[in-house]
Fold this protein.
Amino acid sequence: MINIPKGCKDMLPADGATWRTVEETAREVAEEYNFKEIRTPTFEHTELFARGVGDTTDVVTKEMYTFLDKGGRSITLRPEGTAGVARAFIENGLQGGVMPFKVFYLISAFRYERPQAGRLREFHQFGAELYGSDSPAADAEAILFANRFLEKLQIGDSVELRINSIGCKHCRAKYADALREYFRPHIGEMCEDCRARFEKNPLRMLDCKNEGCKRYTAHAPSMLDYLCDDCRTHFEKLKSLLTAAEVSFTVDPRIVRGLDYYTRTVFEFTTDLIGAQSTVLGGGRYDALIEQLGGRSTPAVGFAAGIERLILAMDAKEVPIIERLPDVYVAGMDEASRTRAMIVAEQLRRRGYIVECDLMDRSVKAQFKYADKLYASKVIVIGENELKEGAVEIKDMSKSLSRRVKFDEIAQYFPKR
Ligand code: HAM
């Protein structure tokens, strides 16, 4: 027996309706906000993530699935979707098109993390990216889109939106100095990662999960006290737009996010429905990424939600999921009527119905039992008599009513859907 790799999960048919609900809702909401779908490869050159996501992040330093392909190229399974979309935007010359450029994606992503509930090595994301606008209205649209998505999944009242601003490269440099000054007396007692982050990117230290380090990070200076005038105005405008749209939020200066490309706005939706891995959706602005990847300077903002975490939250809330059940089971008695049953089933499927017929050589009684198990709402019975008379017996399973209908009137009885 060969087992599934650690940190992966099979999506079994019993979960299909829930996954479909999430994915269809994602598409519906993307349409409302007029975001178009984009698909990029599952793997990219390692360099894209090292440069894009940032080489001081845990994602890049510890969690990437990286290998050499047979041509000796360093390839990485995408740990997230933003870098690939940015590469595609630049490479396909989409910068020359109409702005804003708005796309969404449904992808699987890969991170070599310690698996636990809501944390997998292969997981799935619904993400959206908006390029070309540096207005806080774009940040607001990304957040409203995310908020509407969670609302439509019926978990909107169980999530909390937290926002922060981590400034631009100018004010962040001053903040980094302030952090270094604050951490300097304690650096000897902090973890090895933090000692490396201290020089390269002290903001990362705020995200350290090490209990010993948390003692110091808890009282670190707040970025909000270091924002430059432009960044402060941007953040104030965003807050007023969210307030105008009646989206409730809290400002949480502790949010730094686990990826290096962010500038200014960062945000997370968290829930207490699903345990420790409580962030169901995260995102923010990243005005420097496109240029950093070799494109023309283009402001950008986006988010991604973890589908497995959304589903854990929906399960915890017992969100009702609508599963379409078979409309019709077509039973046949002997060989000739079974052939006819197959043809009737085909006819009804083409009219938009979910239809099953016998594939197991079951007796008529056993076929009825099976139809019952499927919760099929109608059963059509075809036997020798029916073939002779050119008619079928249609039984309504919920009302135990039955009706005889001529073969050429079946279509009328089942109007096209
Ligand atoms: P992220 O916060 O790394 O952001 O991931 C987004 C979401 O993916 C998380 O909030 C979480 O729900 C889910 N997620 C992350 N890692 C795992 C895991 N190991 N297992 C299960 N779920 C996970 C990004 O990926 C950014 N690309 C989002 C973004 C788009 N920012 C701007 N545009």
In short: The CA atoms of residues 63 and 112 lie 4 Å apart. Residues 16-32 form the longest helix (17 residues).
